[in-house]
Amino acid sequence: MFLAAVVLVAALLPAALGLLFAQRSLRAEEAGQLNRMADAALVQAEDVTRHLSSALGEIGRVSDEPCTASYLQELRRIVTAHRAVGDAGAIDHAGRWQCSSLLGAVALGALGGRSLPPPDWRGRDGVIAWFRLLHMPGGEQSFVLGRNGYYVAADPAAYVEGVKTRLNDGPAPASGLGVINTEASRVIATTPSADPSLLLALYRKPVQPGYFDAPYVVRRSGTMPIAVVVSAPREALPERLRSLPWGWLLGGLAAGVALAGWAAFFIVRHMSPRGQLSDAVRRHQFIVAYQPIVDLATRRCVGAEALVRWKHHDRIVRPDHFIPLAEHRGLIQAITDQVLDTVLLELAEFLKRYPEYYVSINLSAGDLTTPRFLGVLRAALARQKVRPEQIRIEATERGFLDAEAAKEVIGAFRDAGHPVYIDDFGTGYSSLSHLQNFHVDALKIDKSFVDTIGQDAASSSVASHIIDMAATLDVQVIAEGIEREEQASYLHARGAQFGQGWLFSPPLTAAEFIRYVGKMRKG
Length: 523
Ligand code: C2E
Ligand code: CA
Ligand code: CA
What we know:
8-stranded mixed β-barrel; binds ligand C2E; TIM Barrel; alpha/beta; binds calcium ion; 18 helices; about 525 residues; 7-stranded antiparallel sheet; c-di-GMP; 2 domains
């Protein structure tokens, strides 16, 4: 469950990051586009404003009497000189319209006598403006700027038109663009699709948005009381998905798959029992316990059996829990080598000093199909000057699967001077046939037959039969798992030479074993 969650997180995290980066990169691109658009819009708005006010200035310098033919002539010249200016004209002090460059002087009549409403804004230099668009005679809805009895009118579209097309950087989002008079906080012009009140609200928002946060940009002019607001549209999700940078997304997905694969591999490699066991082999996490073997006649120790343990996170794991896995996964040979190394590291001095003692080592099927371990053993003993008969071999019948190979390897161990014992004798089906095939030095009677001694069970006499058979074949007997005196004396009486079990001693550390032997020699 936990592992599945890890793999899932490993897969989804990079994909999610990819999505995040895809969105960020999309937003960054969007923000870049908005910024460029705002810059261009501000340039254009300042340009239009400059034209309108310089047209106003030029009209102010015309010396002719307002609405005379020469005055109108001058107005027409000024209007054509300034692209943004659509019309210009004169009004009287009450705002009544007098004449325009387009319609000329107007007599009181059809159009005459019309008044402009009071202006929306008065600037410091006497400039007045009408932000509500005025329906000027001869013109359309116009943005009108005036001063001292004259005015200029402009199509507000001049402020915003063409900004996007001039930018010319690919498919610009269908953004809203507005120009605002910052002193009056009034909208001067917007693109047709934009919502003026929304743009004004964005402009009034006190906090300038962060680069990525909101899809809009406000730019204020440094020299004029105007600002532009550019907002990106809130596109529908499918629209945004289509424009997502797929590189980031696919990259994230690919990284996710790779990471998940790696996580799965890591988990199998390091967290599965198999992975942990191979780690243990690599890190030499095995220790060895020594269980004394005693002569049943004298009760003196003659040697010990080396029993491997796995020291795993301060826990001691018994061999029954990992030897089968190690055999199955091809790790057993490395473990056998480490057991031998440990035995020699801990007991080589002892064995050299007391050549009558021995240590027996358990081998598995993997060790019995090739003479590999014999080579390792031979080289190690030559280095340590320990006699071959001091290292003995215990082989279970499970190790005789390939009977021909086992026969050869067992023969080679014996030829090299290592006595060989058949372990767990009697628990396999073919114990007898093995005995006829192989020459061995001793049988170890399995604990299960020792357990039943003194009970009325049918198997209670098996131990005695095995001892008889061993005598016939002229091999020695070691009885395992002796826990009670009754068992020891029975086995001795039936002719078993050696015994091993808690009655004598549990498995010991090397130091404990050396002390145990020392005590026995004195006593
Ligand atoms: P085994 O070779 O039959 O070893 C005897 C087992 O019986 C040991 O268990 C020992 O601790 C236990 N034992 C000894 N005396 C008594 C007793 O009086 N009462 C009881 N209840 N138990 C007793 P251990 O150490 O857990 O080993 C279990 C098996 O693991 C061994 O059985 C052996 O087949 C295998 N093994 C141990 N060390 C190695 C090794 O280095 N290599 C290989 N391939 N197998 C090993
Ligand atoms: Ca054994
Ligand atoms: Ca056994």
